[in-house]
Structure to design on (823 residues):
C-alpha cells in the first residue's frame, strides 16, 4: 500500500469553479465556488439534475480537466500529481473496455501500463475477476458479454491497482434496474472489502442513498452544492438487500428528493437526459 | 455443413453465376450485335463485334496455351504472362511497402501535431491530382543520376517509386482517421492512467486504427498494382506485365487475341495483391472484433 | 469563415507550399540543375504562360473525356448500387466482378478498348475513366444506402409509409452525402485515368500525349507545363466535386 500524509483527506476541493467559454464571449459556469471534502474510506455520492456540474467535478478530481479557479487536492497532493501517482481508480458510464482485449487483458491494462510483471498481473486479474464473479469469462472478449458484465469488468479494472480512492461517473447508468441493484450490492461489498473512498456520480436517488455515507445534492446554473445529507444506515459491509425495505432508507430517500425538488428546481424535472 | 459454410458456399456459387452471366452477355452481344458497333451521333457507344474487336472467350483461353510468337524457341503464352506477373507483383509489393511506411509516418506526424495536420493534409490530398505517372520518364532520369558506392538506381526502382506515390495516399488518410477513432472515453482512460503519447499510441490508437487501416491497405495495394503497370508502360521496363500488354497490343493486328492474356495476368496480379491484404486482415482479426462493443 | 479559422486552415498549407516552391527554385539555381532533370518552378511558369493556348487545348480534350467518364461512370455506379441494395442476388452476383474491377489496373484495358471502339475515337478513354469512376461511386453509394438506421426504418414502417415515401424521406437523405463523397474521390481519378489512357494509344491532342511527346523531343519545360495543366485540371474537378459535396452536406444537416 502507498503512504499518504497522515490525516490527509481523500479529496479536498476548495472554492472550485469551472467556467466553459462558449461562442462570442459568452460563458457557462458549470461549477461555482464548490467546496467538498471526502474522508479516507468514505462513500460520497454527487446527485443533481443535468447541468449541475457533478460530472465536471468528478473530471476535475480525476485531472481530466482543470478548474478555472480554486484548488483540488487528492490525498494532500495536487490532482495532477495524484493522477500521475495513480492514487485513484476510475469507471465511466460506458464500460470503455478495449474490444480487442479479453476480460483479463482489460483488467491487466493499467497494471501493464505501469510496469507490473506478467505473473503478478495475471494473479491480480484473476483475483479481481473472481471478486466481480466473472471467473468463467476471463478469456472472453467484451462483445461476448452483456452490458452488466462489461460494467463489472470496468469496475474490476478500476480496482486493479488497489486505489484508496474510486471515482465513478454513473457507472450503472446504462444498466437495467435489476442488474443495477445487484451491481450496487456488489459495489457495497467490494468497498467494504477494500476500504477505498468513493466519489460516485448518479442520477438515481435510491442508488445514492443505498450506497453512500453522505449524499451531496447539487443544483444547476450555476453548479453549486445545495445541501449535504448524512445517511446513517450503518456500516457498508452490513448493507444488504433488506436495507432497501428499511424505514430509514425510505426516509433518507424522501429527504434527498425534497432537497432535489426544493425551490427553483421545478424546471429541472424531466430534463434529465442521461 | 455449418451455417457460415453454407453462406460462403452460396456467395461463391452466386458470384460464379455473375461471372458466367457476364461471359454470356459478351458472347450474346458478339452474336447479335452489328459488326461495326452501335454509333450514336458519330460516337461508338457499343463496340464492334468482329473477331478482331471481340474474340470468342474460348479463343482467348486457348491462346494462353499457344507460344508467345511464331519463333521456334518461343515459350507458351501462359509462361510469359506468369513470369511477367511475378515480376510486376514484386515491384508492386516494394512500392506498396514503401508507400505504406510513408503513409503511416505522415499519419503519425499529423496525429501528433495539430499544426502538421493543417499544413500537410491539404498537400496530401492535392498530391493525388498530380499525375506522377505522367512524369515516369523523368523519374527514371532522376534515378539514373543517383549513384553512390555499389548502389545504382535500377529502372524497376523508378516503377516502385511511382507505385509507392500512389499507394501512400489512402494509407495516410485512412491511418489518420483510424488513429483519431478511439472514443473520448478511452482517451480519458489513458489520461487517467498517466500514459504518455507513445504508450497511448501503442495500446490504444494503433489497435483502434486497424478497422480503418485495412480498407486503406487494400486500396493502397490496388493503387500500387495500377501504378506499377502504368509506370512499366511509360518507363518501358522489360519483362513485366505492362510491357507485355503494350507489345501484345502492337501485335493485335495479326494476332487479335494476344492482348487478352496479359490483361488477365494483370487482373490476377490485382487479385493476388488484394488477397494478400485479406490475409493481413485475418491476421489482425482480433483488432476488428466488436466494433459495436463499448 | 472566421479570421482565426482562416489562420488555422489556410495559412499553414500556403506557407508550407511557398517554402517548398522557394526551396525548389533555390535548389535548382544553387546546384545548377539541368532543366532536363528538373526545371525550376519559375521556368515552368514561363513555359506555361508561353504555351497557354496549347495547354488549354490539351486540358479541354482530356477534361472532356474525364467529364464524360465521370458522368457516365457515376450514373452507372449509382444505378448499380441501387439495384444491389434492393436485390441481394444482384449484389452477390456482381461482387466478384466489382472486386476484380476494384483491384485491376483498368488502364490495362485501354489497348483492347481501342480495338473495340476504334483507335481514332476518344471512346476508349472515356470508358477507362468511367470504369475507374464506377468503383468508388458504387461502393460509397451502396454504403450510404445501407446506412439507414433501424430506428428510422421502423418509424417508416409504423407510419405505413410506401417504399417511395420511405426512399424520399429517409433513404435518400441518408445516402446522398455518401454518394457525393464517392464523387469527390472519383473526380480526380477520372482525370488521371483519362490522361493515362492516352499513353496506350489513340488520337493526339490530350495532355497525356502532349506530355510524352514533348518529353521525347527533349522539351522538358513544355512537358512540365503540360503537367502543370493536368494538375490544374485535376484540381478543377476535385474542387467542383468538393463544392458539390459541401453544398449537399449543408442542405442535409446532421450528416
Amino acid at each position: 500500500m502507498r503512504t499518504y500524509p497522515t490525516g490527509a483527506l481523500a479529496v479536498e476541493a476548495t472554492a472550485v469553479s469551472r467556467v466553459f467559454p462558449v461562442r462570442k464571449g459568452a460563458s457557462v459556469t458549470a461549477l461555482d465556488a464548490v467546496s467538498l471534502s471526502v474522508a479516507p474510506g468514505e462513500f460520497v455520492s454527487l446527485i443533481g439534475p443535468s447541468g449541475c456540474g457533478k460530472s465536471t467535478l468528478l473530471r476535475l478530481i480525476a485531472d481530466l480537466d482543470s478548474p478555472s479557479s480554486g484548488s483540488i487536492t487528492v490525498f494532500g497532493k495536487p490532482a495532477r500529481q495524484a493522477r500521475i501517482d495513480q492514487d485513484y481508480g476510475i469507471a465511466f458510464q460506458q464500460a470503455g473496455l478495449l474490444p480487442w482485449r479479453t476480460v483479463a487483458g482489460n483488467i491487466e491494462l493499467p497494471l501493464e501500463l505501469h510496469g507490473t510483471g506478467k505473473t503478478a498481473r495475471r494473479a491480480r486479474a484473476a483475483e479481481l475477476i473472481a471478486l466481480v464473479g466473472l471467473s468463467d469469462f476471463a478469456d472472453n472478449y467484451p462483445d461476448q458479454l452483456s452490458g452488466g458484465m462489461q460494467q463489472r469488468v470496468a469496475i474490476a479494472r478500476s480496482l486493479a491497482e488497489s486505489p484508496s480512492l474510486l471515482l465513478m461517473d454513473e457507472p450503472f447508468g446504462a444498466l437495467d434496474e435489476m442488474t443495477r441493484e445487484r451491481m450496487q450490492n456488489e459495489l457495497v461489498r467490494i468497498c467494504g472489502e477494500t476500504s477505498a473512498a468513493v466519489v460516485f456520480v448518479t442520477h438515481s436517488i435510491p442508488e445514492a442513498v443505498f450506497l453512500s455515507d453522505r449524499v451531496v445534492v447539487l443544483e444547476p446554473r450555476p453548479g453549486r452544492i445545495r445541501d449535504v445529507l448524512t445517511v446513517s444506515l450503518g456500516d457498508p459491509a452490513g448493507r444488504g438487500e433488506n436495507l432497501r425495505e428499511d424505514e430509514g432508507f425510505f426516509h433518507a430517500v424522501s429527504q434527498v428528493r425534497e432537497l432535489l425538488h426544493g425551490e427553483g428546481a421545478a424546471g429541472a424535472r424531466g430534463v434529465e437526459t442521461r | 455443413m455449418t451455417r457460415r459454410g453454407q453462406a460462403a458456399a452460396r456467395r461463391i456459387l452466386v458470384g460464379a453465376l455473375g461471372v458466367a452471366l457476364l461471359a454470356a452477355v459478351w458472347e450474346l452481344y458478339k452474336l447479335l450485335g452489328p459488326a461495326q458497333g452501335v454509333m450514336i451521333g458519330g460516337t461508338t457507344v457499343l463496340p464492334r463485334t468482329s473477331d478482331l474487336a471481340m474474340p470468342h472467350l474460348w479463343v482467348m483461353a486457348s491462346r494462353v496455351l499457344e507460344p508467345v510468337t511464331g519463333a521456334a524457341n518461343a515459350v507458351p503464352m501462359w509462361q510469359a504472362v506468369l513470369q511477367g506477373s511475378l515480376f510486376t507483383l514484386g515491384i508492386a509489393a516494394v512500392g506498396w511497402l514503401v508507400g505504406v511506411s510513408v503513409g503511416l509516418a505522415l499519419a503519425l506526424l499529423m496525429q501528433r501535431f495539430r499544426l502538421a495536420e493543417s499544413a500537410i493534409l491539404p498537400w496530401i490530398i492535392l498530391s493525388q491530382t498530380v499525375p506522377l505517372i505522367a512524369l515516369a520518364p523523368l523519374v527514371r532520369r532522376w534515378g539514373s543520376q543517383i549513384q553512390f558506392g555499389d548502389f545504382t538506381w535500377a529502372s524497376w526502382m523508378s516503377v516502385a517509386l511511382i507505385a509507392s506515390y500512389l499507394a501512400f495516399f489512402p494509407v495516410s488518410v485512412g491511418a489518420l482517421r483510424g488513429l483519431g477513432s478511439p472514443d473520448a472515453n478511452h482517451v480519458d482512460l489513458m489520461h487517467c492512467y498517466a500514459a504518455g503519447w507513445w504508450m497511448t499510441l501503442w495500446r490504444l490508437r494503433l489497435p483502434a486504427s486497424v478497422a480503418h487501416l485495412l480498407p486503406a491497405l487494400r486500396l493502397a495495394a490496388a493503387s500500387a498494382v495500377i501504378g506499377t503497370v502504368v509506370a512499366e508502360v511509360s518507363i518501358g521496363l522489360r519483362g513485366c506485365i505492362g510491357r507485355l500488354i503494350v507489345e501484345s497490343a502492337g501485335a493485335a493486328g495479326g494476332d487479335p487475341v494476344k492482348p487478352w492474356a496479359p490483361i488477365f495476368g494483370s487482373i490476377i496480379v490485382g487479385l493476388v495483391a488484394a488477397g494478400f491484404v485479406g490475409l493481413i486482415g485475418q491476421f489482425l482479426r482480433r483488432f476488428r472484433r466488436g466494433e459495436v462493443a463499448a | 469563415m472566421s479570421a482565426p479559422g482562416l489562420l488555422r486552415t489556410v495559412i499553414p498549407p500556403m506557407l508550407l507550399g511557398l517554402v517548398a516552391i522557394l526551396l525548389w527554385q533555390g535548389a535548382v539555381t544553387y546546384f545548377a540543375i539541368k532543366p532536363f532533370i528538373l526545371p525550376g518552378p519559375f521556368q515552368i511558369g514561363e513555359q506555361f504562360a508561353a504555351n497557354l493556348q496549347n495547354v488549354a487545348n490539351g486540358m479541354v480534350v482530356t477534361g472532356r473525356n474525364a467529364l464524360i467518364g465521370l458522368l457516365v461512370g457515376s450514373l452507372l455506379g449509382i444505378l448499380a448500387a441501387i439495384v444491389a441494395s434492393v436485390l441481394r442476388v444482384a449484389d452477390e452476383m456482381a461482387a466478384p466482378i466489382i472486386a476484380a474491377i476494384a483491384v485491376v489496373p483498368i488502364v490495362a484495358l485501354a489497348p483492347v478498348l481501342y480495338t473495340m471502339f476504334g483507335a481514332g475515337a476518344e471512346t476508349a478513354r472515356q470508358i477507362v475513366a468511367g470504369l475507374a469512376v464506377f468503383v468508388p461511386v458504387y461502393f460509397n453509394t451502396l454504403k450510404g444506402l445501407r446506412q439507414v438506421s433501424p430506428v428510422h426504418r421502423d418509424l417508416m414502417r409504423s407510419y405505413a409509409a410506401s417504399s417511395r415515401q420511405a426512399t424520399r424521406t429517409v433513404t435518400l437523405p441518408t445516402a446522398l452525402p455518401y454518394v457525393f463523397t464517392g464523387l469527390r474521390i472519383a473526380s480526380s481519378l477520372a482525370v488521371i485515368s483519362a490522361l493515362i489512357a492516352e499513353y496506350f494509344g489513340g488520337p493526339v491532342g490530350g495532355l497525356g500525349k502532349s506530355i510524352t511527346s514533348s518529353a521525347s523531343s527533349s522539351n522538358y519545360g513544355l512537358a512540365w507545363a503540360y503537367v502543370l495543366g493536368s494538375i490544374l485540371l485535376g484540381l478543377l474537378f476535385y474542387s467542383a466535386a468538393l463544392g458539390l459535396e459541401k453544398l449537399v452536406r449543408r442542405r442535409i444537416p446532421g450528416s
In short: Chains A and C do not touch (no CB pair under 8 Å). Chain A has eight helices and ten strands.
